[in-house]
Write a structure and sequence with these properties.
heterodimer; A: alpha/beta; Rossmann fold; 2 domains; eight-stranded mixed β-sheet; B: alpha/beta; Pyruvate-ferredoxin Oxidoreductase, domain 3; 6 helices; 6 strands
Chain lengths: ~375, ~180
């Protein structure tokens, strides 16, 4: 599919990876730096065709370290920038995710999850990067991670991811999985005018007028961003820095900076968090599932309801921040007796749920290579 | 109602395109829900190739084909590999020139798709002949939707040929019904 237009408005029968790429283009993607890796390759491939015809820059880098480094450079110059990868490449990006968080350079990183660890199962599904996505780079920082469960959401959440990255000046992750990346479904792409856009907060005063403090945050914890080449004096470093951006290697500066980096997302969680709930009002058993597994879970919940069992579904759309307020509210009602957490890993998001509750949390796990079947979730929900 | 259709053959036969056409016809032109997936990875290279389509009136949750209601086989190896997975009482459709079925499948609907394609001048459209036969037999999608899917998917200069191939497959169903 090649419309020659930035926003390919209309109805398409489109594979998830391409929907992701089209979402990025619709959001205004101007720079892609990446290295192809299954099962994300179709994103890279599609953008390599589409971006040149739009006058946008596509660069196949030498590896994933270079990929994210190039993305950060392009973004610092003002371009909406992204990369796409899978497990092994995602691991190589960890260092620069921390750098992006520290230098507050917005970027979007797509990780299409496959069977892991290491090279694992290149062509088969996994969901075992979700904790790495949150904690993979050393130190305390915050990110947002979206998790689509359909080709349509691959498109929609890419648009959101760019807006969120810009709004909070953070690396924003889109955690797809092999099944979602490789399945073809109907995708409705709106007209260009209907694509939501919220860009970066920018300096108000021109560079000549007054000294600009590139890391002085406003009340929301986010500093306005000057772009390279505009004339503002900006110093970027991975070292702990003061509001000028200069290294400040002491505990007070570190406290101020790291607290703010963490709080940007923590204190704005209510505005960022997204989830989908199904039959939660009277649910005694709440199934928590995300990505492709949430589709099995939805089928399991609907079957359970047909059998008269009070089972509901909580699907985090943002895995990070985790929809913990929603979970707490559910608990406060006192109706929920049990959680079932289904995921294609050996138990990762189940830890988040366990952390928030004293009631039993049943895990339905598969180490990767195949989807969890609705029957398996149903059995756990009814047990 | 949820219908699972599996189309299996040899890499290069256009199996994946056939699956895409079916799913697209359902999802974009018949107003139904459809999910299309394909065999992927080393197992898909130089051997059996497979397209999986789920079509439903309701939203499709579990996206994969597990127990197909309809299985199309366009190669002997594919028949051997996928035949055991066909749902009991499901419909098996064969390319007579390429699959020699076991005696229990002797009465399965079959068509000389590759030969019919050759008669149209291009062996390469055998998959679309089979698409016509499949749609005629199962009515999984409407004829109009199938034709629209073809016209909006294949290269412009091959649309006429592909529509002819589709009609040729469809005719086989009609002529058998008339017999």
């Amino acid at each position: 599919m090649s419309s020659g237009k930035r926003v390919s408005g209309g109805e398409h029968f489109m594979v998830g990876d391409h929907a992701c790429a089209e979402g990025a283009l619709a959001a205004g993607l101007e720079f892609f730096g990446g290295y192809p890796i299954t099962p994300s390759t179709e994103i890279t491939e599609h953008l390599s065709r589409r971006m040149p015809e739009l006058g946008a820059s596509f660069v196949q880098m030498e590896d994933e370290l270079g990929s994210l480094a190039a993305v950060l450079g392009a973004s610092a110059a003002g371009a909406r920038s992204m990369t796409a990868t899978s497990g092994p490449g995602f691991s190589l990006m960890m260092e620069n995710i921390g750098l992006a968080a520290m230098m507050e350079i917005p970027c979007v990183i797509v990780d299409v999850m496959r069977g892991s660890p290491s090279t694992g199962l290149p062509t088969a599904v996994g969901q075992s990067d979700v904790m790495q996505a949150r904690w993979g780079s050393h130190g305390d920082y915050s990110i947002v991670a979206y998790c689509p469960n359909s080709a349509q959401e691959c498109f929609d959440l890419m648009v959101k991811a760019f807006n969120t990255a810009d709004e909070y000046r953070i690396p924003t992750l889109v955690l797809m999985d092999e099944v979602i990346g490789h399945m073809t479904e109907r995708v409705m792409i709106p007209e260009a005018a209907k694509i939501a856009f919220s860009g970066r907060k920018r300096p108000v005063r021109p560079p000549q007028e007054a000294a600009f403090l590139p890391f002085k945050a406003d009340g929301d914890g986010v500093p306005p961003m000057a772009h390279a080449g505009e004339g503002y004096k900006v110093h970027f470093t991975g070292l702990t820095h003061d509001e000028k951006g200069y290294p400040a290697l002491n505990a007070e500066a570190h406290r101020a900076l790291v607290t703010r980096l963490v709080d940007k997302v923590r204190l704005n969680a209510a505005a960022i968090v997204e989830y989908e709930g199904l039959h939660l009002d009277d649910a005694e058993v709440v199934v928590v599932a995300y990505g492709c597994t949430s589709r099995s879970a939805r089928q399991a919940v609907l079957t359970a309801r047909e059998k008269g069992a009070r089972v509901g579904l909580l699907r985090p759309i943002t895995l990070w921040p985790f929809p913990e307020d929603k979970l707490r509210r559910l608990l406060r009602k006192g109706v929920v007796k049990r959680f079932v957490v289904a995921e294609i890993n050996m138990g990762q998001i189940s830890r988040e749920v366990e952390r928030l509750t004293q009631i039993p949390v049943l895990r339905v796990n598969h180490p990767g290579g195949a989807m969890i079947l609705p029957e398996d979730i149903l059995e756990a929900a009814l047990s | 109602m949820r219908t699972e259709i599996q189309i299996a053959g040899f890499g290069g036969q256009g199996i994946v395109l056939t699956g895409l056409l079916l799913g697209k016809a359902a999802a974009l032109y018949d107003g139904k829900q459809a999910v299309f997936t394909q065999s992927y990875g080393p197992e898909a290279r130089g051997g059996a190739s497979c397209a999986n389509i789920v079509i439903s009136d309701a939203p499709i949750d579990f996206p994969l084909v597990t127990r197909p209601d309809v299985l199309v086989c366009m190669f002997q190896e594919a028949y051997a590999k996928f035949r055991p997975g066909l749902k009991k009482g499901g419909m098996l459709i064969l390319d007579s020139g390429l699959v020699r079925p076991s005696p229990m499948d002797a009465s399965a609907p079959s068509i000389f798709a590759t030969r019919l394609a050759e008669e149209l001048g291009k062996k390469i459209v055998a998959n679309v002949v089979m698409f016509g036969y499949l749609v005629g037999l199962t009515r999984a999608v409407s004829f109009a939707a199938a034709e629209k899917a073809i016209a909006s998917t294949v290269k412009a200069k091959t649309v006429t040929l592909n529509l002819k191939a589709f009609a040729s497959g469809l005719d086989q169903v009609r002529s058998k019904a008339a017999r």
